Each structure stands twice: as C-alpha cells, then as structure tokens.
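User: Before I run my own analysis I want an independent prediction to cross-check against. Here's the chain; please return only the structure tokens and, at the end, one sentence I can use as a sanity check.
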Amino acid sequence: MEPLVLLFSFSLLHLCDTQGTPVFVQTGKDLRLDVQKTVLKEGDDFTWSVNDSINVVKLAYGDKPFIFPNYKSRAEFSAENHFILLKNVEKRDSGDYRARVSSASISDVAEYSVTVLDPVSGVNLTVKPCSSNSTNVTVICSTEDSLINSTFTCDKQTCSPEGGERAEIITPGASLDVYLKSGSVICNHSNQVSSKTDTQKIEDFCIKPEGTPVCVQTGKDLRLDVQEPVVLKEGDDFIWKVNGTINVVKFRGIEPAISESYKSRAEFSAEDHSLRLKNVEKRDSGDYRALVSADKDITVAEYSVTVLDPVSGVKLTVKSCSSDSTNVTVICSTEDSLINSTFTCDNQTCSHEGGERAEIITPGASLDVYLKSGSVICNHSNQVSWTSDIQKIEDLCIKPEDKAEIMENTEYEDPQDVNTDLHLKQRRPNDAPAVPPSSIYSMLTAPIGSEAPTESRDNAQPESMYATVEKPAKT
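Assistant: Structure tokens:
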C-alpha cells in the first residue's frame, strides 16, 4: 500500500499565553530543545526553566552544568551547544520552556510551548447493512470514545462524495475522519503525534456476488458442484477458493491437497470435482469459486454461500377481544420481536386475508401473522428453517363464563323418596312411586356379583354420582 499522507487542519493548543514555538511530543519519547548559537561571557549564567518557575539546568560561565534534582535522572545538557534533552517524557512535562542568559541584562535565546500527548487509540471501520440495490453504503468509523456514521452513494466501484466527515471526540487535540481516496474508504484517528487508520476497498463493501446464492443451516453439510465436467491437462491445477484468497483444496490429478484449516471437515471428489463441507458454521459464509489454473485462471463454478442459524420458536397469543368478539387482537412473538395484529370477525370468518410482517433483529429472518382457511397463523422463518403457531378462529375468544353457561340455569332440589333397595336393572314397573317426584336422583352402585376394588386409586373418585334428569311434566 502506498504511504498515506495525512493533512491536519487544527487550531494550536494555547495552554498558556506564550510566543514560544509549539512542539508536540508523544509520551514515552525523547524531547530535544535547541537554542541559537550562544557564547557565554564571564559572569554569565545560562538557564533552562519551565513555566518561568522551575529550573531544569543551570550553567555558570566556567563551571560544569548543574541539573536540578527533579530532572537529574532524565535530563541531558550540552555545555557546547546548550540544548536540553528530556528522556521518556510524561504528560506532566508539558509547559513553556525558556532558555535564558543572565548577566547585567536578561536575554531569552529560545522559547518553546511543549505539549506531551498520548498516542491515539485504535480505529475500526465497519459497514452497516447495504441498501437493497447496494448503491448507498453507510460506514461507521469508530474509536473507544467516538464514532462517525457516513453514507456514500456508490456506482459499481466508485463512490461519492470524495470528501468526508469529521467528528469532535473526547480526547483533546484528536480528530476522527472518514473519507474516500483512490477507491478506498479510510477511517483515520489522529492527533499531532500519532495516527491510526483502517482502510477498505470500495468493491469489498456491497458489490453483489455473481455466484449462485446458496443458503445452508448451521450444522448441516454443504455440497458445491461444478457446472460442467472438467478435464485437467498436464500442469493444470484445480482449486476451490473462498473469498478470492483462501484455498480450500488444490488438485493436480493425483491426491487433493486440502488446506490445514479444512482438513478435518472438507471432502473433495477427484472424479466430479465437487466440494463437501461438513457441519458448516456461520464463519463458512462467503464466495466460493472453483477454477482451473493454467496459463490463465478459468472459473468453472461460483457460489455465494450464507450459513444461517435456524429460527427460534414462535408463539401466538390473544391480546384482547371486543365484548362481542368481532375484533380480535393477536400477538405473534419470538425471542426478539413481536407483531400486534387486529382482525375483524363475523361468526367463524375473519378479515383481512392479508397479514403483517415485522422487522426483527435476526438478519435474513421474517415474522408474519396472517389468516388462512379459518385459522390465524404466526410464522417465523428464514431461508433455511421455519416455525409456526396456529389457532382456529373460533378458539380465540372463548370466555370461561361461556363454558359455565349451562350450569347457571340448573335447579337443584332436596332428594325425593326413591326405592333404592333393588338395583336399577331389577326394578319392576310397579316399584315406581304413584306420583313421580319433581327430581330424580339415581344411586349408582357396583354391578351385582362384583367386588369393589381393594386397591386405592391415585386420583380419588366420588363414591356416588348424581345425574340431573329433565323434570317430568306435572299431571
């Protein structure tokens, strides 16, 4: 990659009112401050100081330089050229540095405004899902404390604008930029002492693959075939590649050479040149190309493979029913999404015959609720799996009080005198009372000749059962 030239446009940091030359240095680096050629005369003192109050080094004419205790372990001074070298600088070393000659008068021979900065953190360039026609590409340029969303309009392998965007971020003196240059999108995080970039080619963003789309469920096997029989000549190589750079298998007519990362789960047929990947994972998604490599590469098969997890389960519940059960609102839900849908019902039919679809978190999946053949159907699906929950329309709004409606109008009276000495089957007509009672209760007993069970049941049953019989008409 050709070196990236970064142009900075910023306002100088005026930490103090100073006329000194601005100097930026990275923490941990060494800092050298020079002076113009200076000749000391007898009686002169030469001093380097910080912020006009802290002395770093002092040199009296004819003496050795004296480095003050706070700097002794990390400052060096040249008695010949009078420059100072601070080693392994820290942020507390920022300030105004002044070199001064004192005699009968005071003369400043050098002045610097020093700012010590940490290097910027790393940067990451990611692409948000592309538009359906892949003409609008939105990229995210982010650091630990800031991000930019920037949208480019692309046509094939070119995008506009050629400019970019800049974010104000938390770190003082730093900037975050995203821009286009030479067919690439560049995300740049920089300050006056360091720069980090992440670069991606435009054609890698949303250019739709030319290969046949194939969707496969995680954990399943994937088989990729060539479109036409392949005959290899001497010196020809047959190669299956992923994303244009990763070899899965290479074959030269003897034994196929399967790459180490695929050795335990890839199978290659030397007869028909097909490739089988076993127990695929989502990381196996990509563009697979089969090619014959001779004087030039000839593509004999190409697939755009997407590996998807199966969809999660789905549940259909009733949210509300109107008092007359003509409006029914149902909820069709999964682990990460739901739809509320209201249907208008008349007896056992509802409208609308259409449905609703929800945008859900899982990429490539859809959640639908609709009516079909007298049932409400909640369906969660993607290209490799689907689950559904179905309820009959007439079951949606059954209320508990509807089930008890018969019991509300039932009358109970005190038991009447009934001849129960004989089993029901042995009664003669003349055993019946002359006047029928208003209510009849029959005692149900075990058949004659049978013995009652001696073992207890898990669920205790009543000793007797009462059957309500329609009251005979009075004479």
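Sanity check: Confidence is low (pLDDT under 50) at residues 1-17, 403-475.
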